[in-house]
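In the previous chapter we treated chains in isolation. Here, by contrast, the input contains four separate entities that must be folded as one system, with a combined length of 1142 residues.
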Amino acid sequence: MTDAHNNPNYAIGELMVSAIARQMGTHDHDWAAVGAYSQLPMASMKLARMLYAPNLWWLAGGGGAINSTSKLVQSTSDHRVMRGAEYMMNMEDIVDIEMWRFNRGRENVVGVVGGIQIDRRGSCNMVAVGDYENPTVRGVGTVGLAFGVSFTLVYFFTMHHNKQVFVEEVDFVSAAGHTERRAEHVPPACIGAQKVFTPLGVFDFAPDSDKTKTMRVVSLHPGVTLEEVRDKTGFDLIIPDHIGQTDEPSEQELTLIRDVIDPDGILKTLRISR
Amino acid sequence: MTDAHNNPNYAIGELMVSAIARQMGTHDHDWAAVGAYSQLPMASMKLARMLYAPNLWWLAGGGGAINSTSKLVQSTSDHRVMRGAEYMMNMEDIVDIEMWRFNRGRENVVGVVGGIQIDRRGSCNMVAVGDYENPTVRGVGTVGLAFGVSFTLVYFFTMHHNKQVFVEEVDFVSAAGHTERRAEHVPPACIGAQKVFTPLGVFDFAPDSDKTKTMRVVSLHPGVTLEEVRDKTGFDLIIPDHIGQTDEPSEQELTLIRDVIDPDGILKTLRISR
Amino acid sequence: MDPIFLNGKKRQSKLGTLEDAAAMIKDGTQLAFGGLHSHNGPMALIRQIIRQGTKDLHLIANVSAGMPADILIGAECVDTVTVCYIGMEHLGFAPRFRKAAEEKKIRIIDGDEIYYVLGLKAGAVGMPFVPYPPGHEARDNPIYEKTYKRTIDPYTGKEIIVSPAIRPDVAILHVPRADIYGNVVHLGSVVADDLLAKASTHTIVTCDEIVTNDSIRADPHRTTIPGHYIDMVVHVPYGAHPLSCHGIYNHDEDHIKSYVKADITTYLDEYVYGVKGHFEYLEKFGIEHLMGLREQV
Amino acid sequence: MDPIFLNGKKRQSKLGTLEDAAAMIKDGTQLAFGGLHSHNGPMALIRQIIRQGTKDLHLIANVSAGMPADILIGAECVDTVTVCYIGMEHLGFAPRFRKAAEEKKIRIIDGDEIYYVLGLKAGAVGMPFVPYPPGHEARDNPIYEKTYKRTIDPYTGKEIIVSPAIRPDVAILHVPRADIYGNVVHLGSVVADDLLAKASTHTIVTCDEIVTNDSIRADPHRTTIPGHYIDMVVHVPYGAHPLSCHGIYNHDEDHIKSYVKADITTYLDEYVYGVKGHFEYLEKFGIEHLMGLREQV
């Protein structure tokens, strides 16, 4: 078994891009949004449109470019991202989608976003670690994460997998996971957190009561053990009978990533850690 | 005394354009909106910018052109109006101004609009003559006249001056004049109906109580008598001690109107009647 | 410039026919249409909607509606109409709307530009209603029209007027240009076409010209509606006639005048029921006449 | 193409200097700024605001604010900040914001993109507040942040969340192009710059390039903000540096990295207080470096 983190054939970021792109293959004809600091999902969207979901519509964050075909740059709001885009959204356009697409019932609206703190229920915190009035870490703010109660599905990706990121319960709910509060208030057409892509594996959410769900292991990346995942996660994951191994990126995927999507090699510079 | 309606030197429409343009001279640096079916005020705006108010910003109706420099056409929403414009508003842009500019306190926001029925207090009706549920005439609808409670000032122009247009009290208040209801509800920064330009003369509104105003004669067009105005108005006008004669259009104004603003002679085809 | 599509997958065209589009509009549909006055109305599609015998529409007339609303009402397709303005601009009243209203054959919701535009904005963004600033109590729409309500502004404690969010079932637009994926380029006024696409569950565009996706990507700032809002694109040259298509041809003022004066049954027999499709309709006018409308002197 | 102005009257230019512009921002002003992340921030004007010693600002940070918010907080100009996001994107936390927040030296209003964008929309159009659809009860912003309120949706009878209209005293924007009358052309992202101009009592634009009014009139569809919203235009080449000006130059990532790591007092002494004006600031970087930022490979 190869260790994705030390594999001579591909970088861990390339494996994650492949995994997210294949997931996007289930969203042909859907609409997906990527936030800032999102080189991994940006590359995934480009790869998905080439191979798995040619009818996917996607937004590169606050910069507003729809269906960008530019090469990868650091920032989703860099003006180079607008090259070859089909439309430039302003913030009103973005919030129009952020707020109520769950009511339209035509296509799924999907977010692929990072999180500073993610808990067992898939709630996400961007505001404060510790007491809200006296935080030990003041976070950046809730940004666009309100879409957690309006988008059809939310996928998380993280650049690190440790107990600082994956906590029992977030201190501030920027995006609502599969909590009782969600069950009480959020329209069911808005399904919420669907999967989490980390440097160690892929996870989803399974019911642990009538109204709530807990994060569950789906597959581990090559070379990763279940023990390591448990050690680095701040809560008890649901462990299913069968745990797969995340598929490695194909030659075709790697060629497209390196030659077309990311010729400057930005993915290889990302500080992704276990 | 010449009769403007039979004056060999200019058409009555040209006189009205001149009068409205000179009025706009008091609105340099202000913002003015013109509705549909508005050839007279469109020509006036163009003339005003050349002669009296070079810093006036104006909107040609729902078509959205700001500061158009095209020649006069029939419709404010004709695409030919966008030639030489500085910006193209969509309806959201227009309603943004329509609804609350009275709160900004920077410049006056002015509407120059027609009316199917206008009453002594300057209320205007575009919806229904007679009982609302069983109208004798169903009008076109309130359109943008809600700005009567948000714009700083409203100027009316009419193509006819008769008792069908000028009534004691409108049957439906599309735009609120100087009524007790206005005094009770509308912020004072929104002053409301300011003047009325008709084929017979120019009128303003003078207080007739603590809270209300009534239409008052300012000037009569050349050849028009006070008796004729009274006969053709469905309520008692306030008659001041001094009534002026509306200034005739100057040679410079007529040259600009005929050679630059309206080379196709649309103003001369308007069916303006006393 | 669109990426290479591999694995045998292809991006799918949204092209359809006028018949396909009209079939999306069922009896009872809440139907909105774009443009304003004699400009940019989806007239060819409206004629097809009449031709297929659609009934009981709740028509959400555009901000200044003329012939599109009048002909649908005249053809007895309409049960309810949300009105800002229905008239013929400098050509006077819209005769079939006026008649149907005075004879109480249609139900009227008396809105205005705020009711319509901010209602659509609320519909687009998911706000449940539109709260009004003080002042609108002084006019009659919020008094007579029963879909306005009242609630409390919790920042002042005062009662305020509100109007409902508007979420049409289907919006139909005629635009100058679109690509086969639904990306739209207006050459003249956008009016509320962009907002209609956002607020409506389904949106159909008919267009005068189909352009390449490359031309869209060459200047994304000129795209006025992104294709993800568009369900179907129908290529219909002169699809707005006798209205204008901004940037391509002027409105046919003489024909609109003759429509206003015509007996509506005779008019529909000749121009709607009496022709099999859009090009047969255009043949009634001839190429010289239609090309003449492009003169923008 | 602008009409001939006769009678000796002339259309007045709105051009001013950075000093004129900064003087419009008094102590205690509710100040909003445009752009997002490391893009299109009015940095030269912000440096002048710091240089003039402005205090007690209520900063309404843009939808994803980085250095513009961080440096104003670091220079102790800010009393209160409305936050969607303040951070340095892939470069981590915004250190002076984080420190001031953790030490409780600033008051924070914890909004998000909806609170900010629809708050500005309400401010622009005069709606007294923003009504929310169901669902937002499940997250914490409307619980912890006390400027959210509740009211009744009269169409359902149910209690809903609302947030306030936002009406900044002054908005400051850096844009690629403007004419002397304030008409703005963005070459890249508009973000919420257009909305800020509508919602704010006063708006100042700094721009990299002054263009002729003729070029504005040649293509009015490309105008992104009409000049009637703009109080003053300041011509400031590289006025966004070290941020990007979309369509003209990239952000100066190395300098922004060094800003994040720097001692803030030393940084301000060198780049703000230690230079007399904007061109002296630019001289610190040199022409070769600045021209290099224009490379858009």
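Residues 90 and 108 of chain A are 21 Å apart (CA to CA). Chain A touches chain C at residues 28-29, 31, 46, 49-55, 57, 65-66, 69, 82, 84-89, 93, 95-96, 99-100, 103-107, 150, 252, 256, 260 (CB under 8 Å). Compare these points with the single-chain example from earlier in the chapter.
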